[in-house]
Design brief:
The chain contains 13 helices and 10 strands. It folds into 2 domains: about 210 residues, Rossmann fold; about 100 residues, 3-Layer(aba) Sandwich (Rossmann fold). It is an alpha/beta fold. Helix 9 links the parallel strand 8 and strand 9. The longest helix is centred in the N-terminal third of the chain and has 24 residues. It is globular, with a radius of gyration of 22 Å. The strands form 2 sheets. A 6-stranded mixed beta sheet has the order 1-2-10-7-8-9.
Length: about 375
Amino acid sequence: MIGDTARVTTFPTNRDRLVSRAWADEAVRRIAADANRSADTHLHAFPLPEDWGIDLYLKDESVHPTGSLKHRLARSLFLYGLCNGWIGERTTIVEASSGSTAVSEAYFARFLNLPFIAVMPASTSSEKIALIEAQGGGCHLVDDPTTVYEVAQRLAADRGGYYLDQFTYAERATDWRGNNNIAESIFSQMALERHPVPAWIVVGAGTGGTSATIGRYARFGRFATRMCVVDPEDSIFYSVWSGEPSAFTGRPSRIEGIGRQRVEPSFLPDIVDRLIQVPDAASIATMRLVSERTGRSVGGSTGTNVWGAFLLVAEMLSRGEQGSVVTLICDGGDRYAGTYYSDAWVRDQGFDLAPHTEQLETFLETGAFPPSVP
């Protein structure tokens, strides 16, 4: 006889397995069909002087159906969960995210008729909450931002659901060898350019999944391309990579989508050739400049990317090198009308954009990047 406290493990019948597998097969087909209907994202040339001999490209990930780079990650995370047998037809999907990842995951959850809950800090902007809810997701707010991982895991367990855990699975859910990932797309689109193999690819790190995918793909293809990660001023990645503990403030990142307070499992430091810490005011100043110079409204993390790309271009020019640099437009600027594009918000944050804007203008006129300012 089994005692009251004993735990009984039950296994699905053959019919249950068949129904579950049939649902999962259809879910994978639907996600693949959705991807097949979507065109590849554009690779735009940023206007630099022709005689510099250096070309800068911006891969526009804002044109995905959910408006950001995270659409790729969300698709991969759902396929990973489905093909591992962790997501079924009644599974509640849970994620720790206050930003674009949650928006994209809510899209795929609704696509499969699954409930979705995003666990996020109570300080998350109402605009981001509205975007998640517009995709059919729910938002669970917590007062302490450091508890989002724990709370997400607990909510998933309580509901018999599945915690997507982007911070652990981002680097393994994406097929880094190819399969139309972002890296393969970049190198394919660069094939007919005058410098087809980029000297540098520049990305920010949130989960670390994008840098892992691109860095691995470049090594797998034996390309000479180097990987540069740019990091906001309050993030831990630069501090750990550079061995400078004092560089980490412990405060939450003010540049949404990138920067973390802990080194995420998906971040692979050994494939990073350069890591640049970017002041938040510089990110915002660059974001605004990119929007003005290209006519494309972009978000704060794009500003971080382009600031780092400009620094690398200036260094190449100083050494007499030619080549190409590629970075990303991570999302559109419409999500930040009340923050990064608001002069009142910028003042309230204590940011002074003018010195950074002057640096940017000097660089674009001369090719030289003046010394950094606070």
